[in-house]
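Design job #97: recover the sequence.
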């Protein structure tokens, strides 16, 4: 019989019950900082990899592993690593593959903070960066130097919805590893690893989780490259927490259904907007008017996703009116890929850190609006947009 403990010990050591004898229908949350070990021998076995296990959650956790492995499977690749956010995932990739004096060729149109981070690395750490038009593999190849170590692009660009010809780009870059932000497309629509990419990453806060309640990033790719990413993520504290991973795993279960619905809705919304007199252009790869329409048909045969942009004749003044008119139905939100439809203004949110002249030169005008079409009834979304646009 166990020795009776003092109350203080009961409290300090409590919270434990008998081990489950039946498997729970849903995976548990391993909300723990560390894992108890039987001794030095087990510590050494786990560290060496001869025994499966965990030591400290910054280095790994069952919830981390579950989500990362599922994303790797979806991307048809070897391994995955989770980070605290999409930006943490970018940081882990760059820090694990670059050093001072190295050169990066990057798409000229990227998520604004990704561009900002590359510029920060150039200013403070001696990483050379060239931004080039990713629509032209030849232009990207021409930007290469002897010290080029990485090429960074988005499968569908934010916010101009440019579709990268990844097979041609990989061929053009030769031995230079190509890293792809696949956030907009998701592995349901496009798998960069199948076209020669070295690493793929996501802001998992977006479609992979899909419910607007997680801050998370994930990297997937060849095991050796992911191992380097995971090591840097642990060293610099870029790791995710177990609960966020658990939520993302739950969101992942409905990803194919959500992507199919969002893609279908977005195409109908884009077709509606294209005929509106107040709008100067609509940017969606599923429209025949899109510059990459034929490429999208080839690389994205299952749909072009839920993201689209459109430009107002009335520029910033019109944007301000539009966001105000839509506030109660399609909210102005500086994120995307929620189940509900949301709207954003790149010049004032995701790309506000860019030089205004560069923004305009790259096609991001003050009248450009980005729409994240959700799984809500598309008739409602169209009606709400129509009503608001008529107020311009």
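Job complete. Output follows.
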């Amino acid at each position: 019989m166990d020795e009776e403990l003092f109350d203080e010990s009961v409290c300090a050591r409590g919270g434990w019950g008998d081990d489950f004898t039946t498997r729970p229908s849903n995976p548990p949350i391993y909300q723990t900082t560390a894992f108890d070990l039987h001794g030095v021998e087990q510590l050494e076995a786990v560290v060496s990899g001869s025994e499966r296990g965990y030591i400290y959650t910054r280095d790994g956790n069952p919830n981390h592993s579950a989500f990362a492995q599922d994303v790797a499977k979806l991307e048809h690749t070897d391994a995955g690593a989770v980070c605290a956010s999409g930006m943490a995932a970018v940081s882990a990739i760059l820090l694990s593959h670059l050093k001072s004096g190295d050169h990066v060729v990057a798409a000229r149109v990227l998520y604004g903070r990704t561009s900002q981070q590359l510029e920060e690395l150039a200013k403070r750490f001696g990483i050379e960066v060239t931004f080039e038009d990713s629509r032209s593999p030849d232009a990207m190849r021409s930007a290469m130097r002897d010290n080029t170590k990485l090429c960074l692009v988005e499968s569908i660009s934010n916010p101009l919805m440019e579709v990268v010809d990844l097979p041609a780009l990989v061929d053009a870059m030769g031995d230079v590893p190509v890293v792809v932000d696949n956030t907009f497309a998701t592995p349901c629509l496009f798998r960069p690893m199948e076209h020669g990419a070295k690493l793929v990453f996501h802001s998992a806060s977006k479609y992979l989780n899909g419910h607007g309640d997680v801050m998370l990033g994930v990297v997937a790719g060849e095991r050796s490259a992911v191992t380097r990413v995971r090591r840097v993520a642990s060293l610099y504290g870029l790791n995710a927490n177990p609960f966020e991973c658990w939520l993302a795993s739950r969101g992942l279960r409905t990803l194919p259904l959500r992507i199919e619905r969002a893609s279908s809705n977005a195409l109908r919304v884009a077709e509606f907007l294209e005929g509106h007199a107040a709008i100067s252009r609509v940017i969606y790869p599923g429209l025949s008017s899109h510059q990459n329409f034929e490429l999208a048909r080839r690389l994205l045969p299952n749909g072009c996703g839920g993201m689209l942009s459109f430009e107002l004749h009335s520029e910033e003044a019109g944007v301000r009116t539009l966001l105000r008119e839509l506030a109660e139905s399609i909210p102005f939100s500086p994120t995307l890929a929620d189940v509900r439809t949301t709207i954003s203004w790149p010049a004032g949110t995701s790309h506000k850190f860019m030089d205004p002249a560069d923004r305009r030169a790259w096609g991001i005008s003050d009248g450009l609006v980005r729409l994240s079409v959700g799984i809500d009834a598309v008739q409602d979304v169209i009606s709400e947009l129509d009503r608001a646009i008529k107020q311009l």
